[in-house]
């Protein structure tokens, strides 16, 4: 049996090849006198005995992929028995092209490659060619210990791209909100007081519209009742405009501490810049949410996923994005729980035994699982009873939700294990 491996792609100034500079977490600064290096992959092929049959460096482009397929064909690659490939990343055009060939692709964690490399040499020498050989030997020796990339459908992969982008947009929106709020605490307490009890706080369209019209507390204090009514209508408010305008007028005209006028004006300029960032982040999150839910609703598993209490179209899309629709991806519920980070980790040695929460996990799925478990408390009496039992046993809020998410992962795996999913499969937790 022949095993192939692609070394991690060298993408230029932030990554190094075997003949390049030193690698660091922050990369290295490229000299203006050094010609930019082309991204490449190092290839190594080994047989069942560990003998290296070929090695080659290819570019990260169509020509490089053609070289790779020609090399694999030369060493016995056939459609009915494709040569498996190990690589240090699950993303990129080369990986997408390899997945299209139908061959098994194994994405190996670079840390695991580094540990395996020490089996052959303690001199700590390092090169992309050595890493490629280590990847191939990992498949030769420990293929059963690694999980190949799932054979997800094209629609599921499309949903994964959109759902992850939307989740990133939400995180960017929260970061922009925190920056703006921190800035307003420095000089603009009236706007914070005006929307302290609002459901969405500074995310509210009314808050952002008023802040754009009056970026300083002095400007807000000069707003008239008529101007406030116009701003509220511009923000989309249709009810209680008169009462809200009166309330805002009273809040803005209270006595507050102020910076000197020029300093306050400078703060206002910075606030306007931060507000534009928040507006852009909110628009991106909303647009991606609509696109994600539209794509998710087209998937045949959408009715089943949303039948679980606490899962809507958006959170369901995030769950589908991370677990995929390949039924053979997880061999049992324990694999899914470990992947999601809901299963604890036990460290035992002699008389010592410590059980801790899992830190190495899919962070996106774990974040979605927290939201899912929390939302299910209101939609499922059984989920609520399970959460209350964990709290009574001494678990904190986060630990109780993680334990509930662990049970929900078991239900998802049991439903996905069926040969064909049927709508309503998740309603067992609703009892």
Beta-strand residue fraction: 5-15%
Instruction: Identify the overall geometry.
Output: elongated
Low-confidence stretches: 11-35, 419-431
Number of DSSP strand runs? 7
Mean pLDDT: 86
Report helical residue fraction.
40-55%
Order of helices and strands: EEEHEHEHHHHHHHHHHHHEEHHH
Radius of gyration from the CA trace?
28 Å
SS-based structural class? alpha/beta
Output the strand order for the largest sheet: 3-2-1-4-5
Would you summarize the structure shown here?
The chain has 431 residues and is of the alpha/beta class. It is built from 17 helices and 7 strands.
Provide an overview of this structure.
The protein is an alpha/beta fold. 53% of the residues lie in helices and 8% in strands. It has 17 helices and seven strands. It has helices at residues 62-74, 93-100, 110-117, 128-142, 154-187, 189-194, 205-213, 217-221, 225-234, 241-252, 261-297, 302-306, 313-323, 333-340, 363-379, 381-392, 397-416, and strands at residues 3-6, 40-46, 52-59, 85-87, 105-107, 345-349, 352-356. Strands 3-2-1-4-5 form a five-stranded mixed β-sheet, with helices on both faces. A two-stranded antiparallel sheet has the order 6-7. α15 crosses α16. Mean pLDDT is 86; it is low at 11-35 and 419-431.
């Amino acid at each position: 049996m022949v095993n192939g491996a692609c070394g991690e792609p060298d993408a230029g100034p932030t990554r190094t090849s075997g003949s390049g500079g030193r690698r660091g977490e922050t990369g290295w600064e490229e000299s203006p006198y050094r010609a930019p290096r082309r991204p490449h992959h190092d290839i190594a092929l080994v047989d069942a005995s560990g003998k290296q049959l070929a090695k080659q460096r290819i570019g990260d482009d169509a020509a490089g992929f053609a070289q790779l397929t020609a090399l694999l064909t030369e060493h016995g690659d056939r459609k009915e028995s494709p040569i498996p490939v190990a690589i240090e990343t699950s993303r990129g055009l080369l990986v997408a092209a390899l997945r299209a060939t139908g061959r098994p692709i194994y994405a190996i964690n670079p840390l695991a490659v580094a540990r395996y490399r020490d089996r052959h040499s303690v001199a700590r020498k390092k090169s992309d060619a050595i890493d490629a050989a280590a990847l191939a030997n990992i498949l030769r020796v420990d293929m059963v210990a690694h999980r190949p990339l799932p054979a997800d459908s094209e629609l599921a992969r499309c949903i994964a791209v959109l759902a992850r982008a939307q989740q990133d947009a939400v995180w960017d929106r929260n970061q922009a909100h925190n920056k703006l709020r921190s800035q307003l605490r420095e000089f603009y307490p009236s706007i914070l007081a005006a929307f302290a009890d609002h459901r969405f706080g500074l995310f509210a369209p009314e808050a952002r519209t008023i802040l754009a019209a009056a970026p300083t507390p002095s400007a807000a204090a000069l707003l008239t009742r008529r101007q406030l009514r116009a701003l509220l209508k511009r923000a989309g408010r249709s009810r209680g405009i008169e009462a809200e305008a009166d309330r805002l007028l009273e809040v803005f005209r209270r006595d507050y501490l102020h910076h000197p006028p020029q300093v306050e004006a400078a703060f206002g300029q910075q606030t306007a810049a931060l507000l534009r960032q928040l507006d852009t982040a909110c628009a991106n999150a909303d647009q991606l949410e609509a696109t994600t839910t539209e794509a998710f609703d087209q998937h045949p598993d959408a009715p089943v996923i949303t039948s679980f209490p606490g899962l809507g179209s958006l959170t369901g899309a995030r769950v589908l994005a991370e677990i995929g629709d390949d039924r053979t991806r997880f061999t049992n519920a324990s694999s899914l729980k470990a992947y999601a980070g809901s299963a604890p980790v036990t460290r035992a040695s002699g008389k010592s035994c410590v059980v801790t929460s899992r830190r190495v996990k899919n962070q996106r799925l774990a974040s979605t699982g927290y939201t899912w478990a929390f939302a299910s408390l209101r939609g499922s009496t059984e989920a609520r009873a399970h959460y209350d039992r964990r709290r009574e046993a001494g678990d904190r809020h986060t630990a109780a939700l993680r334990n509930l998410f662990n049970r929900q992962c078991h239900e998802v795996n049991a439903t996905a294990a069926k040969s064909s999913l049927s709508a309503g499969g998740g309603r067992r937790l609703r009892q």
